[in-house]
């Protein structure tokens, strides 16, 4: 996957720079999300790999599917991707764009999996604690994972905080065996 990321990064940075200059991060985010979703369709994937189609034909077919959600600059971006045979990289480009957007907006997407649903007070308290820890505004997304005995697992980018009962017991066992 590192190779895909390496190939997608310059395109994501260019799209981000353009969107930031145009003050349209939200619009570009939506357009890239749509294009990434379209590119992951099985039929579109087959079309993108069809060697009988030229880059222009691929771009036109791709744009015919999602052009309603794209600005003129977004269409030009997709044409450029098609010319360089990079349309299959759209999901990776979208992810990298979102990371750049979150950094610029000083926000952090945090996923919390807990044994039981979080109350409003717990969610607010966790959001405040994580905002303080990471120095960013936190957008909390919570889900219930019934396989957990108790506690929660917090995922914030590359950081994982295991506050589950199982995780604490594993740490205790490791400490006792050392």
Give structural notes.
- 61% of the residues lie in helices and 14% in strands.
- By secondary structure, it is an alpha+beta fold.
- It folds into 2 domains: 101 residues, Peroxidase, domain 1 (Orthogonal Bundle), CATH 1.10.520.20; 72 residues, 3-Layer(aba) Sandwich (Glutaredoxin), CATH 3.40.30.
- Strands 2-1-3-4 form a 4-stranded mixed sheet.
- Helix 1 packs antiparallel against helix 2 and helix 4 packs antiparallel against helix 5.
- The radius of gyration is 21 Å and the shape is elongated.
Summarize this structure briefly.
61% of the residues lie in helices and 14% in strands.
**Estimated structural class:** alpha+beta
In DSSP terms, counting alpha (H) and pi (I) runs of 4 or more, how many helices? 8
Side by side, the strands of the main sheet go: 2-1-3-4
Q: CATH architecture of the largest domain, please?
A: Orthogonal Bundle
**Alpha carbon gap, first and last residue:** 36 Å
Shape: elongated
Q: Kindly report the average pLDDT value.
A: 86
List segments where confidence is low: pLDDT < 50 over at least 5 consecutive residues.
none
- Can you give the helix content as a percent range? 55-70%
Give the radius of gyration.
21 Å
Number-wise, the strands total 4
* Largest β-sheet summary: 4 strands, mixed
Order of helices and strands: HHHHHHEHEEEH
SSE arrangement:
Layout: H1 2-21, H2 25-39, H3 42-48, H4 55-66, H5 72-83, H6 90-104, E1 107-114, H7 120-134, E2 137-144, E3 152-156, E4 159-162, H8 165-177
Parallel strand pairs: 1-2
Antiparallel strand pairs: 1-3, 3-4
Helix pairs in contact: 1-2, 1-6, 2-6, 4-5
